[in-house]
Amino acid sequence: MEESEINKNRLIVIGGSSGSLQVVLDVLDRIPSDYPVAILLILHRGNSFESLLTDLLIVKSNLPVREVEEKEKISAPHIYLAPADYHVLIEKDKTFSLDYSEKMNYSRPSIDVSFISAAEVYGEKLTGILLSGANEDGAEGIKTIKESGGHTIIQDPDSALVNYMPRQAILKSKIDEVLNTEGIIRYLISLIPAGC
After folding, report:
1. How far is CA 63 from the centre of its chain?
2. Is 51 noted as a catalytic residue in this protein?
3. How far apart are CA 134 and CA 189, in angstroms?
4. What does the pLDDT average to over 183-195?
5. Residue 97: beta bridge partners?
6. Closest listed residue to residue 104, CA positions, set 135, 147, 142
7. Could you say which of 78, 117, 137, 148 is catalytic?
8. pLDDT digits (tens, 9 = 90+) for 46-79
9. How far apart are alpha carbons 111 and 117 in whole angstroms?
10. Is residue 174 classed exposed, middle or buried when 0-12, 13-18 and 19+ CB atoms within 10 A define those classes?
């Protein structure tokens, strides 16, 4: 179906830090197994939490969940998780590249690095979603997504467990939508073609 094919050429990037995990789990629980858009998660986490987070997401998600691998082709339906201690970049051929360069905003993986890289490749076919967090990582990235024609969403700071990250995004850019968890879920489900 034509709309579904359009969606398969899209990407959703979701970034979060402190206080974002419960939102991610609630979202993944509601996304159906045939979801037509690939999703990349960039979550700040320590190395010691690496395998536990992946296992938790696998249990909670209806979609296949996997950590990003070097040169892996992006395809739906998949949830891709940025590995601990690596930046995730998107190449022009829509494959992933892992990078161990210096931390950005005290973070590796950096939300900004992935959001900016994805915006350069996907442009208006990209949706960026920024969740709860305690630093400003992601604010510059969401601004770049907006400037590239993509759709930008932040978690409503009033509903965020730690509201510094979404508030910084509001200060840096004109955001398309400010949504609570239920609103984010409704938006994502709206991308499923009618009749599927």
Report:
1. 15
2. no
3. 28
4. 88
5. 89
6. 135
7. 137
8. 655 556 888 899 999 999 999 999 999 999 999 9
9. 10
10. exposed
Complete edge-to-edge strand list for the sheet that includes strand 177-179 = 65-67, 79-81, 38-43, 11-16, 126-130, 151-155, 177-179
Quote the Cα angle for 174-176-177, to 5°: 120
Predicted TM-score (pTM) of this structure? 0.92
Split at pLDDT 50, 70, 90, the class of 97 is very high
Query: Does residue 112 carry a catalytic annotation?
Result: no
Residue 107 falls in the annotated catalytic set = no
Q: Supply 112's token pair.
A: 């900004």
Query: Which of 109, 103, 100 lies closest to 53, judged by CA?
Result: 109
In the chain, the amino acid numbered 62 is N
User: What DSSP element (H or E) covers 188?
Assistant: helix 181-190
Residues near 79 by Cβ (< 8 Å), separated by ≥ 6? Answer: 28, 39, 41, 57, 61, 63, 64, 65, 66
Angular region, 11: left φ>0, alpha ψ -120 to 50, beta rest: beta
**In 3D, which of 95, 37, 33 has the Cα closest to residue 64?**
33
* DSSP-assigned letters across all residues of 75-128: -SS-EEEPPTT-EEEE-TTSBEEEE----BTTBSS-HHHHHHHHHHHHGGGEEE
